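Case study B.
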Amino acid sequence: MTGYPLYLLTRLGQFALVIFIGINIAFVVTHATPIDPVEQSIAASTQFGSINPEAVEMMRQSLKELYGLQGGLWDQYVTFWRRIAAGDFGPSLSAFPTPVSILIGRALPWTVALLVISTLLTWVLGNLLGGLAGYYRRNRALRFAGILAMAFHPIPYYIVAFLLLIVFGYLWPILPISGGYTMNMEQDWSAEFILSLLRHGLLPVASLALVGLGGWFMGMRSLVSNVVTEDYVAYAELAGVERSRILRSYVMRNALVPQVTGLAISLGSIFNGAIITEQVFGYPGVGTLLISAVHAGDYSLVLGITTVSIIAVSFAVLLIDLAYPLLDPRVKAR
Amino acid sequence: MRLWRAVVALAVVLWPLGAVAQGTISDLPRKETLIVENPEGTIKNAGWFNIWAINAGSQSNGLQQLGMDTFWYIDPQKGVDGVWDNSLAAEKPIYNADFTEMTVKLRKGIFWSDGVEFTADDVLYTIQTHMKTNGLRWSAPVQINVAEVSAPDPQTVVFKLKKPNSRFHALFTVRWNAMWMMPKHVFEKVPDITKFDNNPPVTLGAYTLKSFDPNGKWYIWQKRDDWKRTTVARFGEPGPKYVAYIDPGPPDKRVIAQMNHELDIIHDTSPEGMFKLAKDSPSSHGWFKGFPYAHPDPTLPAVLLNAENPMFQNRDVRWALALLIDIKAVSLASYRGAATISAIAIPPTGAGPEYYHEPLEAWLKAFELDTGKQKIKPYDPTIGKQIADMLRPSLKDQIPTDAADIAKAFGRGWWKPNPQAATELLQRAGYTKKGDKWYMPDGKPFTIHVTVEGDLRPVMTRAGSMVAQQWRQFGIDASTVVAQGSMFDRRQAGDYEAMISWSVETWGGHPDLAYFLDSWHSQFVAPPGKPQPARNWQRWSNPELDKIIEDTRKIGFDDPKGVELGRDYVKLMVREMPIIPLMSYNVFTVMDETYWTGYPNAATAPYTDPVPNWGNTKYMMVKLKPKQ
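Model:
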């Protein structure tokens, strides 16, 4: 077997291996945590109300039995892989007996929507403006946009997020600062609900876009600055090809290849959640779920989220690997 | 120019998204809605309302405050009609002579929210279900205590106990929570109650669930039309028609939300957040009218010293460490001065000062500590006043001047720092100082790791850092260890040397100490390496303490001898110093009067704890009235 089929097979093998190793590392790390979900449950149940000390040991045994934690680490490892093979992560230990898949399924659409929109928006705007700035280097507005992008880029994300929160939530309180939609509203896709979604998503998306824009902008401007010095661009200009066509067909298309790679990896990473964004804006999503699971020692839930994330990132990388030889003839399948 | 036009066009398109007025709550009148912080934050399993399953869902999302009920409530403050309230019970518990039987008389005319009458059958079902089902929240205490339960008539329940227990009623007496009654007619139809979500819940309280966010950000409860058939109706109609429990986010956002009048009650914020609201939000107030604002919870943060560590087994060492702490600096570092200090192992709040702090003041002043070289009187009764005086120049008339008010707000006295006495005590214990470092009797450096909770509890973390710093300045190799997220595990496992935490929690409004003290009996102290059951986290045992606990078990809950035994406990704790008490757990609950009035406060309405995650919050609802 040679050529693309061999390349495909090799990449698929690497994909499976990366997932297997990644999930195993996640299993070891989560089970090495000093936080015991049974003790967390006992503490939460006994720290406020009246409790008989004799009852605590009985409670401990009952919870171990209920959570299925009585076997050794190896038993839990085998059970874990058996469940993964069946597409099931088991019950959450901090929201027992609700399955982990239901909790992830409830949070994931929020994270995916937030990060897909903000990532695509940032990517399109950043590359467009960066491309234009790289090509029309004397344009004042684009130079100003470049200064803005460079100014925002190094600011830590949480500072920008808090700045937006203070400006639009306190000094000029026109936007909501918490939640995904207005309280007591039916999730019925009515115009009112969609407007509410947009209002609640505006600050989180804006914060991610403001910080993320600079990276794409500067990357693209730099790529375009290199491409415009290529001979074929010079020849096109000398041949009198329209500038907008040169920009579109000769410059941007060639400069975009590495940016597409970056986009695919960014999209794969969205399953990690946007922990700081969700915390600052009280936005629902996988990040908040992950933090809560870590604090509760809920390794079923942590493993569920990390497994989804590992598969998503690996899959994104696989797609790029498979698409590269087709997109760019310079990358040859052996 | 085209680019600029595009930017302007985008702004024009986006502007209405922000400008369109859209209230905090859809379709509900804000003036009829009380908005409260749920300190549990975002609830991951939002649609779970089976409170009898352990930690499967939220408790303080309004479920236990507005939906649940049980026999009795003890208020952490004065109570609406006294500290003790017979809620579902018509009278106090009736025990037989040897405390092996408890009879409960039930109140008539109380109905579940679906119209079914509450009777002894519900109680029987609740108890018998816990007797035969493992893994429910109260299965273990019921199975350990109850031999048999019966209902001679629809308004009487008799518990026969496996062994004498004069405090069995505590299981059904609310202090934050208690064992709630189950609706038999709902749960008896469920095949496996550990997997039943109870959504929507049928309630005994004056509210029912109206709606909730599947992502756990908010819950809205609505007043029952038949609220007169619930237990709080004895005190009047609950004011708010709707109550929303929300996750407003971190402390800064809670402050912003209240300044925007979108959050009526902040459960807790940072001292700095409280100061900001006190300064800039005229409609906001705390428990105290002025500084320190916060409500002192009946919980006592202290320096817990692990008694199973040889380092702390000598009383002289424990006392030396206490005498090295400057509580004024700890108060400033932790609560920015807004702490209510306590030298004794009783929280300085609720009934504590009346029954313990004030009567024992003379004894504390006279208490002598023999260092081997001198006898000192370590108690300085003026420290609370010194803290007030220290803060007065900057906070002016917010600081009380009356001695009683100062004692209530800042506490009374504490141990005066005395490095000389600490030196003498350590030397008597065999410790030596070489250069500027202290060494233990075995020649190893005297090293203490103070475990703190980190960002999850910044106030207590700052207290721990200050204590460690003061010990370090004396030559002890002290430092803090951050156990973020794993504090409970380490506390239960005994995996710490010293820790800023609490093992003393009281009823607040009632002086009986068995609530926490019974668990301090040596019979419950776990050997090293084994988990320690709540609440003797310091694993300290003492024959004299055992005797106090055993004597308490033999007397009734309201027996005046209980207070005498409680004072004996306090004196023993002062002599032995197994933990170093610091202060009460002050909670910066902030209430906004833009829409509602009648909140509890220390001066004119101390009818309950304002902290809104307690089950006792149900009494606040009947006191709240809409602002005219």
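The first strand of chain B starts at residue 33 and ends at 37. The remaining cases will be described in the next quarterly update.
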